[in-house]
Design a protein that fits this description.
The chain is built from ten helices and no strands. With 187 residues, it is mainly α. Helix 4 runs parallel beside helix 8, helix 7 (99-106) packs antiparallel against helix 8 and helix 7 (99-106) runs parallel beside helix 9 (125-150).
């Protein structure tokens, strides 16, 4: 089923990428990477453009996810995660605000859980926008740069290591935020 959806949207090129990037950030199961990577392999010259579009429309989708969280609330969030996962997300938002969205954008954790949760837990709009732009931008541009520099070899590299590399990037982001917050408190 996922393969069929990926193929269907990939057949529409840039427009399919835009639609999936928006929908995945709020309710859709197909990650835009599955369209971004093949499009960039076919046309590496357009790769940076695709990464930018993917980042921007994923951020718009994050805002839609936040709106879903604000309007529908916790019941819809519980469809995507367990109570334990939701409480963890709540603690992350309490500790890191919108930067929790950036972390989720870098990891294999379903982004939609964090975007919907941002509405459920009342995270302000600006941090959600910035967190989405940073997290998703780093992820999508990383994939495109890998393809531009490694060509077809990047596909296997991304399949094996992309999740770990972006997860480590997310952890480094959280560590940086921790020390930044600690320094800010001591001032």
């Amino acid at each position: 089923m996922i393969d069929f959806m990926v193929d269907s949207f990939a057949d529409h090129g840039m427009w399919g990428l835009i639609i999936v990037a928006f929908m995945e950030a709020s309710f859709f199961p197909v990650p835009p990477d599955l369209i971004l990577i093949p499009l960039t392999l076919i046309n590496p010259v357009e790769g940076l453009w695709y990464a930018l579009l993917c980042t921007l429309f994923s951020t718009l989708g994050a805002l839609f996810g936040r709106w879903i969280g604000l309007k529908v609330g916790r019941p819809v969030l519980e469809r995507f995660g367990s109570s334990k996962q939701i409480e963890t997300v709540k603690r992350w938002f309490h500790s890191y605000g919108g930067w929790a969205v950036a972390f989720a954008g870098l990891t294999p954790i379903p982004f939609k859980v964090f975007t919907i949760a941002s509405g459920v837990f009342g995270v302000r709009l600006r941090p959600v926008i910035l967190g989405s732009l940073v997290g998703r931008g780093l992820r999508f541009f990383f994939e495109v740069f890998a393809i531009i520099t490694m060509g077809d070899n990047a596909v296997e590299y991304l399949r094996q290591y992309s999740g770990w590399i972006t997860f480590i990037g997310g952890v480094l982001l959280i560590i940086w935020l921790f020390f930044r917050r600690k320094a800010h408190r001591s001032q």
